Automatic annotation (TrEMBL):
Transmembrane segments: none annotated. The keyword Lipid metabolism applies. It is an enzyme of class 4 (lyase). This is Probable enoyl-CoA hydratase, mitochondrial. GO terms for biological process: fatty acid beta-oxidation. GO terms for molecular function: enoyl-CoA hydratase activity. Belongs to the enoyl-CoA hydratase/isomerase family. InterPro entries: ClpP/crotonase-like_dom_sf, Enoyl-CoA_hyd/isom_CS, Enoyl-CoA_hydra/iso, Enoyl-CoA_hydra_C. GO terms for cellular component: mitochondrion. Its EC number is 4.2.1.17. Pfam families: ECH_1. PROSITE patterns: ENOYL_COA_HYDRATASE.
Amino acid sequence: APTTYSYLEVSEPRPGVGQVTLSRPKALNALSTPLITELNSVLQSLSTSPTIGAIILTGSPKAFAAGADIKEMAPLTFSSAYTNSFIESWSDLTTTVKKPILAAVSGYALGGGCELALMCDLIYCTTGATFGQPEIKLGTVPGAGGSQRLTRAVGKSKAMELILTGKFFSGEEAEKWGVAARAFATHEELMASVLDTAETIASYSKVAVMAAKEVVNKSQDLALRDGVEYERRVFHSLFGSEDQKIGMKAFAEKQKPEWKHK
Ligand code: HXC
């Protein structure tokens, strides 16, 4: 029986592609703790599902997510945030999901919404999408990795400008600066393209796809020499996989590979 969720819709729009749509329309998909808890549990099950090879995370044409839930945060104290590890569970997205997550961003991606998109493995957006880290206007700072991931994406000077002023930036700028991999004129084009990309990824060997995600993400954590060495270890280890044999044999025989672990 299909599971029902309070703040999400979950579907499999293409073979091997799991799509999670944030759906809390009255609050522009503000990311409350119950929403994040649901999101983590759905992503966990997609991540371990044998039939899913790639995951799309999206919102509505109006909002990917307008931030963490300001009304939930307003009364928090240091002691309650600290002792309850407020926000910490958001990192489950990056630490426990081994399959690629593609963010499809239309409308607002602000504060925690921008950070949620930055946590994904790649971002596609509309040119008219609105990104930003406006926490400074609320008397606080990004709390879900924005100061680190946005800085790695756009460089220090631009990240400082964006985080210190809280100024929004467009999807067109996001693409130009390398925050987004691609920007599209309309929501429909965005969704068509993200589905195609996710389906392409899901058509490959899971072993290779998960290894590729792992090595690229290591580049964000490790010094270059360590990262290159890490990549080589993973590369060597893939000679122990059936799918490396299948892929290279198929190339030599001019056949389409039939992956063992798709
Ligand atoms: C709670 C929110 C919300 C949010 C919007 N809403 N954003 N509720 N938290 N982040 C609610 C509004 O209160 C309103 O509810 C309804 O959604 C519609 O929003 P409006 O403001 O009426 O819409 P509009 O005039 O179109 O303006 C859109 C907007 C604006 C520009 C996106 O809503 C806005 O500035 N939102 C806050 C953006 C922001 O500051 N995000 C960063 C949050 S801090 P009612 O009940 O009045 O209809 C953050 C920190 C992250 O994310 C740190 C760690 C995760």
